[in-house]
Design a protein that fits this description.
It contains 11 helices and no strands. The mean pLDDT is 92. Helix 1 crosses helix 2 and helix 5 packs antiparallel against helix 7. By secondary structure, it is an all-alpha fold. The protein has 3 domains: 45 residues, Homeodomain-like (Arc Repressor Mutant, subunit A, Orthogonal Bundle), CATH 1.10.10.60; 97 residues, Tetracycline Repressor, domain 2 (Orthogonal Bundle), CATH 1.10.357.10; 30 residues, no CATH class.
């Protein structure tokens, strides 16, 4: 199969998903694609442009807020999708808002999210706060979730049980562990919807106070 820009970026995404962005190198990407490193630069001229393309793909995988839903539900669709995308591409959050040359999918995504918030009657000022708070929450939650054992997919109960005796001198931590973490059905991910609801409720109240 001949090398193309699309194949370079697809290979880069796969490699980053496997090794992370810190360990990502053009040499490793060339090996994964079974080409020489300089061959890659014929299709994407620099590593920075590869990273730009990768970030654009990530934004393109996130569902846009549906325009036929109330803004609160539409933004929930987008946020839930973004959480799942960032689970797959766990390396992406530090890069998402740091690119100086955003691609069309990134720009479209930002435009649609801003449009969703404005459509809900939020002022420009509250829309700015809303977008900053929502994405800070999403990026932070994604980073915390990926650093849990096996990205939060592993049963944390055995680890909590092993640590519980160590927590006994710390009564609040011990109670939290025994009465919450060790209870049936515990999942760190359950806090995602709770936090998202708090943010959206707060935005609704802020918009009402402003009107």
């Amino acid at each position: 199969m001949s090398l193309t820009r699309e194949r370079v970026l697809t290979g880069a995404m796969t490699l980053a998903d496997e090794v992370g962005i810190e360990a990502f190198t053009i040499r490793k990407l060339a090996a994964a694609l079974d080409v020489k490193p300089m061959t890659i630069y014929h299709h994407v001229p620099s590593k920075e442009q590869i990273l730009d393309g990768m970030v654009d793909i990530v934004f393109g995988e996130i569902a846009l807020p549906p325009e036929d839903l109330p803004w609160e539900e539409a933004i929930r669709v987008r946020c839930r999708s973004m959480r799942e995308v960032l689970k797959r591409h766990w390396w992406a959050p530090p890069l998402m808002e740091s690119r100086s040359d955003p691609g069309p999918l990134s720009l479209r995504h930002h435009d649609k999210v801003i449009g969703c918030l404005l459509r809900g009657g939020l002022s420009i000022q509250i829309t700015a706060h809303a977008y900053a708070i929502l994405d800070s929450y999403l990026y932070g939650f994604a980073l915390e979730e990926v650093n849990l054992p096996e990205g939060g997919t592993k049963d944390i109960v055995p680890l909590a049980e092993a640590l519980a005796p160590m927590f006994e001198p710390y009564p609040n931590l011990y109670r939290f562990t025994v009465e919450h973490v060790l209870q049936p059905g515990y999942s760190f991910g359950n806090s995602f919807e709770f936090g998202l609801d708090l943010i959206i409720s707060g935005l609704q109240e802020a918009a009402q106070r402003e009107s």
